Inverse folding.
């Protein structure tokens, strides 16, 4: 992560601090917010006695997921490079193997061992690439948490009559995110058996 | 064999593309959500679709339903984190031919693709 990205994240996190401080010394959280003044925090919706705008949380989340996605892709780039280099090495070794001076059985055996360890490296690189799926899964879990936070936020706003809904449309996340990512283990199905069952029921129809 | 991959995560698209190239499929087109997927599909030549479910703009379920309106036979594989039985059934009812739960192994993806291509 670049220093500029770290700074941007710190700035985004710091943006919440004034609102939190204001809440402590300001009016009661249940009080109606004061009239917004142009150019003030209240004017942008993060006024005294109110929780930080949901949009702020969403944009912080967007920043976090964007940065982790970009960083994951950088790791993937490195893995791609390793993979290419190993591939090139295998080609060179194959070429050397055919060379007249390398026909000694001991040399041939050594080359085969080098080839075999090269393949092991390649397999490990592929394995590491596959493990990068964690980024997408974690992102979806985060989005799901925000979805539920937003529901709680809206419920409290309704209860207190303080207006200002979370603005679900602002988020660049899926409308079906509440269904995803964290399917409890006891609800997880073996996809193949469900597909089989579905096909059987279709055949009967 | 041209394969369309629809997923909002660039990392996930890359992982899928990587797995496909390892099993011999290197002709791929990418889209980051259902709407973009429909556009790419409109360009023609796509013979198989691999799609995520949870995406902004147009989710995978709506995408599959829309595709099925015009393409009843194109093989569609859904690759998603949604793992509950009711989700899988809903996807199958929408027209998905097969289903993979994330995280997946290359072997699973390979097996599913090969079974779809028969």
């Amino acid at each position: 992560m670049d220093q500029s990205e770290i700074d941007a994240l710190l700035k985004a996190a710091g943006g919440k601090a004034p609102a939190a401080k204001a809440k402590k010394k300001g009016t009661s959280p249940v009080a109606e917010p004061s009239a917004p003044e142009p150019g003030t925090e209240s004017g942008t919706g993060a006024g005294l006695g109110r929780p930080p705008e949901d949009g702020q949380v969403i944009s912080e989340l967007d920043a976090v997921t964007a940065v982790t996605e970009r960083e994951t892709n950088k790791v993937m780039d490195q893995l791609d490079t390793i993979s290419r280099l190993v591939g090139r090495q295998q080609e060179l070794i194959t070429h050397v193997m055919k060379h007249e001076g390398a026909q000694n059985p001991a040399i041939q055996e050594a080359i085969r061992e080098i080839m075999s360890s090269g393949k092991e490296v390649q397999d490990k690189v592929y394995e590491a690439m596959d493990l990068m799926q964690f980024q997408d899964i974690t992102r979806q879990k985060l989005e799901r948490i925000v979805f539920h936070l937003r529901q709680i936020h809206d419920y409290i706003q309704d209860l207190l009559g303080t207006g200002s809904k979370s603005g679900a449309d602002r988020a660049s996340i899926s409308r079906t995110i509440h269904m995803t990512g964290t399917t409890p283990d006891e609800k997880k199905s073996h996809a193949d058996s469900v597909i089989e069952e579905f096909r059987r029921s279709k055949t009967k129809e | 064999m041209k394969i369309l991959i629809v997923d909002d995560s660039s990392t996930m698209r890359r992982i899928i593309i990587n797995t496909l190239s390892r099993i011999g499929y290197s002709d791929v087109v990418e889209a980051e959500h259902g709407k973009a997927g429909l556009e790419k599909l409109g360009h023609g030549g796509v013979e198989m679709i691999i799609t995520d479910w949870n995406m902004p703009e147009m989710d995978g379920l709506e995408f599959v339903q829309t595709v099925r309106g015009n393409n009843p036979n194109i093989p569609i594989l859904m690759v998603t984190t949604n793992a509950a039985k009711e989700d899988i059934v809903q996807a199958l009812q929408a027209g998905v031919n097969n289903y993979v739960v994330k995280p997946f192994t290359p072997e699973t993806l390979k097996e599913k693709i090969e079974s779809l291509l028969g």
User: Anything to note?
Assistant: The first helix of chain A runs from residue 3 to 14. Residues 90 and 116 of chain A are 9 Å apart (CA to CA). The mean pLDDT of chain A is 71.
